[in-house]
Amino acid sequence: MTKSVEIVEVAPRDGFQPIGPWIPTETKAAYIRRLAAAGLRRIEIGSFVSATAIPQLRDTAELLEVAAALRGLRPQVLVPTAKRARDAVAAGAPFLVYVLSASEAHNRSNVRRSVAESAEDYARMLEALPDGIALRINLATAFDCPFDGKMEVAPVLDLIRRLAALRPDVEICLCDTTGRATPDHVAELSASAMAACPEVGAWAYHAHDTYGMGLASTYAAWQAGVRIFDAAAGGLGGCPFAPGATGNVATEDVVWMFERMGVATGVDMAALLPVAADAAALPGASAGGRARAALAAGCG
To answer: Where does the secretion signal sit in this chain (predicted)?
Structure first.
């Protein structure tokens, strides 16, 4: 294969965060080890957020220690504020994902501040960030907001330009938080953002599958030139601050599609499938995806 993409596994953060029953830390650690063994080199292992708001992620610092022992793994953690970024760096996080929303209503619901305030906070974080820390921006509700509806491309592009100007060498991930993005919208914003900000270090896409469009929108982003994709084993997920949003696009579905297209992912499907099946069976999990059942039924 002459073409390749990078899959970022987000089940241990985005997939586990809406699950009510506590998942023991060692169980989470075992999933991270198994996902890494399946060839996933970037895993979002958790988030430094309020344990009151999202109690499932209160053991992220412990999981960082687990990830540090796995050779070749790049663990990343999500942070919503500069203060939480300091906590993550103090705990040894090598890769931060700063999240803010394109829509005012969702940003206030998610982090209790305006988009402008989050952008200012991001700038303060950049000033204090030590050398050697990798960085990504997760731009939530880039396509659709659960409160405001469909996002127009122009104002989202304006926000992307402002963020990129603060530090152009970061990775920017366009996130379909609600799963309501259509492939044409994903292709338009992805292509427009890359054309408007060619200095950006890398572009990524984060799909949810609420309306069964996750794989189609992932393909649309790939056609537009994106080469980094978030996915969750077992199709786990759902945003606590986006009512009605269900799981992420399933890692096994994304891997199957790209490999079938002749695009290398570096993921061993035979090793991934049992991990995905176990993740989907977790008590309280909201699972999705189609490849598990199809391959289990011998559909090849």
So the answer is: none
Domains located in the chain, CATH noted: 16-230 (3.20.20.70)
Distance set, CA 161 to CA 55, 105, 156, 293 (Å): 34, 20, 9, 42
Closest CA to 267 of 68, 70, 41, 73: 41
Q: For 112-182, where are the alpha helices, taking DSSP H only?
A: 115-128, 153-166
The per-residue pLDDT for 162 is 97
- Could you tell me where the DSSP H helices lie in 112-213? 115-128, 153-166, 183-196
Is pLDDT above 80 for 245? no
Give the ranges where 200-262 is alpha helix by DSSP (H): 214-224, 251-260
Select which of 145, 173, 175, 239 is catalytic: 239
The answer to whether 143 touches 181, Cβ cutoff 8 Å, is yes
Question: Could you give phi then psi for residue 76, rounded to 5 degrees?
Answer: -125, 150
**Stated pTM of the model:** 0.96
Quickly count: other Cβ atoms within 10 Å of residue 47's Cβ: 25
In this prediction, residue 164 carries a pLDDT of 97
175 tagged catalytic: no
Q: Identity (one letter) of the amino acid at 162?
A: R
